[in-house]
Amino acid sequence: MRHFGHLAPEVRRRLFHQEPCEFTADSPARLLAAALGATLYSPATRPQLADDIVKQSERGVVSMVLCLEDSIDDADVAAGEENLVRQFTALDTRRGADLPLLFVRVRTPEQIPDLVERLGPSVRLLSGFVLPKFTAERGIPFLEALAGAEAASGQRLFAMPVLESPELLYRESRVESLEGIARVVDKYRDRVLALRLGVTDFCSTYGLRRAPDMTAYDVHVVASVISDVVNLLGRVDGTGFTVTGPVWEYFRVPERMFKPMLRTSPFLEGQAVELREKLIEHAMDGLLREISLDQANGLLGKTCIHPSHVLPVHALSVVSHEEFRDASDILRPESGGGGVLRSAYTNKMNEVKPHRAWAERTMLRAEAFGVAREDVSFVDLLAAGVTG
């Protein structure tokens, strides 16, 4: 699979200076974590789940979570498990289909070995499990169960813990809770692919819900915990993990209170004007702003609950030509001694030592999502995805 692989080769050649790389479920964890992109959630109870997975893959989705937790009723868990096993078996017969990375969000540790055993040969399609309401105390049984299931099945299985518990939000318990989580995930570092943020649960602790013309960063009690999670768990010194962005809940806005957040200037030509209006109509201006703020705050990828959110996440994850030139200059062997370089775009300074970690992260993102041509913007990538 590859990002934008659903576009025709000639379209990709027109858009990309460096095309996104190809990868598989067996690729190195570092690349997979960076390449998760828009992780699309789906209830495990959907009767045509196998068809849905194939269809979304053909539309550019590269990671999906099949949910047995909050997205389904408590009474439907057993039926959801049965459907999951049945749909994986059906997928396993489609040998020619390109499938996304598939994860299952469970409720209890006991579900992990049980589902792995019940999946039988089709477990080869499974990349891992999403672990809800993760804390140091709750997380250990989940991770032990995953390690045991991996050993029993011979299938590489990753964990994606979800950080969403009140202990993380409350000021008096936050540091202790984060430090406990850090110790646990470090012990199982080889199995933890990424950490996910459960912002909806954070908001519910205070009876809040952000409006479609506001981002998670406008809700200060939520923004503060995102900052602390990245501070302790998203470091680039070898101790950190990929932390993914929070879910965007909206996909159509009947009425808005504030002006659209999407500037007019990038959309001044041809069909781009219509694209801007469509994005605003479907609350995508808020989503685009939140994706940009995710990246500015050290997050990569995003939880998504609607297929229309996938393309904006991927389009804004592509490395611009300017970013690529700056990162390349900073990482040149002859720049290893430090110093300051003038950007090839002559609009900024590149300070070699302070900007090196940024350059390395940028090059990893470039490998996963590609580098846009010099004259290609995120609007062009959005438009190509909509029409392509």
Word description of this protein:
The strands form 3 sheets. The chain has an 8-stranded parallel barrel, surrounded by 5 helices. A two-stranded antiparallel sheet has the order 1-12. The longest helix is centred in the middle third of the chain and has 18 residues, at 136-153. The two termini are 17 Å apart. With 388 residues, the protein is an alpha/beta fold. The protein is 46% helix and 13% strand. It folds into 2 domains: 21-317, TIM Barrel; 319-388, no CATH class. Helix 8 (171-187) runs parallel beside helix 10 and helix 12 (284-296) packs parallel to helix 13 (310-317). The chain is globular.
Describe the structure concisely for a colleague.
The chain has 388 residues and is an alpha/beta fold. It has helices at 9-15, 29-35, 49-58, 77-92, 111-119, 136-153, 166-169, 171-187, 199-205, 220-233, 272-281, 284-296, 310-317, 321-330, 352-369, 378-387; strands at 16-18, 38-43, 63-67, 101-105, 126-131, 158-163, 195-197, 243-248, 302-304, 340-342, 349-351, 371-372. The two termini are 17 Å apart.
